């Protein structure tokens, strides 16, 4: 190939590459409305975006993997947690933390009910954007060593050894009458005997000694409506309570978490936990969409 041919080849290659790039750009812009659910951008969503920026949420959290890495990625948070959980969490994050155990705490921003409602609407719109699977995996808080939990292995061993059912880990705040039941249930999830998070993750697809509880509320609704269900619960909330107090009431066919019709999950929670503790635990699990 002589110099003239080389020059023509370079020009033609550049032109073809430019045309391909322009075509892909036009095609991407053509799909943006569909991929981003532009038709669902309501005034509440726009107001929620303003709340997100007003309180500098991106200084700690990420959306689509972009932002700071001090706290979890919130891209799909509304697909994992129900609105009740998010409302309670944003209203007073301190109820969901033990300051003596957690290295980082979300500050209480004193958001109004309207701001919380709009922020959830914004996050729900974000969660329904077709992000083509990005980020490829959940972004965990730095220091978390057990997927789906906020405890290290050593801390988990400490709480799983509590002698009194429902007793909080050493140094945890005592319960007060005005604490949110969902927050109490999440705390109990980590501190009951044995600790629920010793066997269950709340991260999607992360199965431990027991199955992941991510999406347990949605699965419960489908199971209750299925003719294969063998338990006595009438609704999803009842199924969650039944799974806590009588785990062998319904055995999922083919699951590896039972043998001879008996669940591997301890059947002692119904006796060891107080009725209100079971209510709190069930309220928390019902938020896992």
From TrEMBL:
Output the superkingdom of the source species. Bacteria
Keyword list, A-Z: Electron transport, Heme, Iron, Metal-binding, Transport
Q: Which SUPFAM superfamilies match?
A: Cytochrome c
The terms under GO molecular function for this entry are: electron transfer activity; heme binding; metal ion binding
Q: Where is this region: Disordered?
A: 147-181
Domain Cytochrome c, chain residue ranges per copy: 43-127, 180-289
UniProt keyword Transport present: yes
Q: Where is the composition biased (Polar residues)?
A: 152-162
Cross-referenced PROSITE patterns, in alphabetical order? CYTC
PANTHER family (alphabetical)? CYTOCHROME C-553-LIKE
Protein's UniProt name? Cytochrome C
Which species is this UniProt entry from?
Noviherbaspirillum denitrificans
